[in-house]
């Protein structure tokens, strides 16, 4: 193997996973009709993480499993009930930040047709591992 390649592999790598347009249905809102009927939401997720060296040797067990994260998000959203978009986004963000290799995650959730003359209303929250206060943000939304 090329020695330059070996040297480059020892550097710390960071990767991004992007999940775009995850369309789910949930109870979201505090009006009577919103609490009785599921509504569409569209979720965009971006996760930055430190890449373990094993992935460069095709070690599946060392990879961050985006399918597992997505399944957890689907279960949370489809089985949950939320009064506020902020609570929903914070809960999804917590799922998307729950791994020691994750250095940053961002979740945007759109609520299509929430306003009469708008395509959607959306809210974005971000987590950064290097910032204090992550739990405070999530606790406030709980």
What does this structure look like?
The chain has 142 residues and is α+β, with helices and mostly antiparallel strands. It has a single domain (12-141), classed as GTP Cyclohydrolase I, domain 2. The chain has helices spanning 3-10, 32-36, 66-79, 85-95, 134-141, and strands spanning 13-28, 39-51, 81-82, 102-112, 120-128. Helix 3 (66-79) packs antiparallel against helix 4 (85-95). The longest helix is centred in the middle third of the chain and has 14 residues, at 66-79. 20% of the residues are buried.
Helix content: 25-40%
Strand order of the largest sheet: 3-1-2-4-5
* Main beta sheet: 5 strands, mixed
The CATH superfamily is: GTP cyclohydrolase I, C-terminal domain/NADPH-dependent 7-cyano-7-deazaguanine reductase, N-terminal domain
- What percent strand? 35-45%
Shape: elongated
CATH class type? Alpha Beta
Spatial gap, N to C terminus: 51 Å
What is the CATH-assigned architecture? Answer: 2-Layer Sandwich
> Could you give the count of β-strands?
5
Poorly predicted residue ranges? 138-142
The SSE string, one letter per element, is HEHEHEHEEH
Class computed from helices, strands and strand pairing:
alpha+beta
């Amino acid at each position: 193997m090329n020695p330059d390649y070996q040297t480059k592999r020892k550097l710390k790598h960071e990767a991004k996973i992007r999940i775009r347009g995850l369309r789910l249905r949930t109870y979201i809102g505090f009006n009577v009709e919103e609490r009785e009927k599921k509504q569409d939401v569209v979720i965009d997720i971006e996760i930055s993480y430190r890449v373990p060296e094993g992935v460069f040797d095709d070690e599946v067990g060392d990879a961050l499993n985006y399918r597992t994260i997505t399944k957890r998000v689907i279960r949370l959203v489809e089985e949950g009930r939320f009064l506020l978009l902020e609570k929903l986004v914070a809960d999804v963000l917590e799922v998307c930040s729950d791994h020691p290799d994750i250095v940053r995650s961002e979740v945007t959730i759109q609520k299509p047709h929430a306003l009469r003359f708008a395509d959607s209303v959306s809210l974005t929250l971000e987590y950064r591992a290097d910032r204090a206060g992550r739990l405070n943000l999530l606790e406030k939304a709980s």
